[in-house]
Amino acid sequence: MSYNVDSQGYYGDFGGAFIPEMLYPNVEELRLNYLKVMAEPSFQAAFNALLKDYVGRPSPLYFAKRLSEKYNTKIYLKREDLNHTGAHKINNTIGQILMAQRLGKTRIIAETGAGQHGVATATVCALMGLECIVYMGAIDIKRQAPNVARMKMLGATVVPANSGSKTLKDATNEAIRDWINNPVNTHYIIGSVVGPHPYPDMVARFQAVISEEIQWQLQDKEGRKEPDYIIACVGGGSNAAGAFYHYLDSPSVQLIAAEAAGLGIDSGESAATSFLGKEGIIHGSKTLLMQTSDGQITEPYSISAGLDYPGVGPMHANLYKTKRAEFVAITDDQAMASGLELCKLEGIIPAIESSHALAVFKQKTFKPDDIVVVSLSGRGDKDLETYMRHFEL
Ligand SMILES: *Cc1c(COP(=O)(O)O)cnc(C)c1O
């Protein structure tokens, strides 16, 4: 059995493309072309060159000595926080902007919640000189003013979504409406391993550079390609998909996904999708999502804006259901404490999303000679205010 996508766009029971008829031609064009385009040597060369010189890859695999001593195991941090724009999201937007160019698209749309994916998209549009429209809930525009300013400085147009709860799901609806109205010249850049097939697979392949690098970096440092564990936080699941990718079918590598439990799994204020979720359809794919008994999507909550998503990508729904990955729920307080601990022990201020992955060390014990790789998905600059408020700094 493989944990990768099958030819029909499914991961076990999850995935597929549940989209309005009007969107079919757009998604079908992408589905028919994405693997062919990605396999072209000129595409590979352009992608790798930008990852190297623009993003700053390979990102280091750093042996965290003091953190390792504290937890009596061998901990390596995969430093996605050192990428240009401060997180792993840029790996995917670089890939998709090149894809859009190869497909002859001149206009890029995206939706964003906290603004991180909007910034990563605006960045690559500036890089390529392509028009960029980012849909964002009107409430999120107010809450995330610095990222709105960044997008504007990068030349993007930020369009407020004023319907519904004025947050991410309303922005998504606006983006889909735009794409239906502009099927020929527009590419929709989705920011995680979510959405209709082929998006989850395409995004996972772009993020797979993370585990491709871990393989040779670990070979250099430890004389073997495979760690015993890989830990990553899961919002939609793209940094986890990238960190797991080349190890999905290696049973000796144990995969651990950290989900945001917010104020606690049973508090009603949580984003622990796999624990609380039921099968359903969100953003065009069948997956696990948080919903009421009559199928209404529940508003998620997490202190970390990047994990505040009611669903999880279909790859992760399958990893959960088949028990290939272990899912661990981390509360706001646990994540914040582990984030601060990394600051003090290693001199690295992590994104609060990444702090959820670090908090797994408080819940699970590893053996002294276990090699544990943690995906440090992003840096904490964007979260300074939240850290200040939480710790009264
Ligand atoms: C967006 C974000 C995440 C969550 O997204 P995934 O698709 O689950 O990776 C995690 N960490 C950081 C730093 C982010 O910006």
From TrEMBL:
One of its GO terms (cellular component) is cytoplasm. The keyword NAD does not apply. The keyword Nucleotide-binding does not apply. Its cofactor is pyridoxal 5'-phosphate. GO terms for molecular function: tryptophan synthase activity. Residues 56-378 form the Tryptophan synthase beta chain-like PALP domain. Transmembrane segments: none annotated. It comes from the Bacteria. It catalyses: (1S,2R)-1-C-(indol-3-yl)glycerol 3-phosphate + L-serine = D-glyceraldehyde 3-phosphate + L-tryptophan + H2O. The modification N6-(pyridoxal phosphate)lysine is found at K89. Pathway: Amino-acid biosynthesis; L-tryptophan biosynthesis; L-tryptophan from chorismate: step 5/5. InterPro entries: Trp_synth_b_CS, Trp_synth_beta, Trp_synth_beta/beta-like, TrpB-like_PALP, TrpB-like_PALP_sf. Its EC number is 4.2.1.20. Keywords: Amino-acid biosynthesis, Aromatic amino acid biosynthesis, Lyase, Pyridoxal phosphate, Tryptophan biosynthesis. NCBIfam families: trpB (TIGR00263). The beta subunit is responsible for the synthesis of L-tryptophan from indole and L-serine. Belongs to the TrpB family. Tetramer of two alpha and two beta chains. This is Tryptophan synthase beta chain. It comes from Bizionia paragorgiae. The gene is trpB.
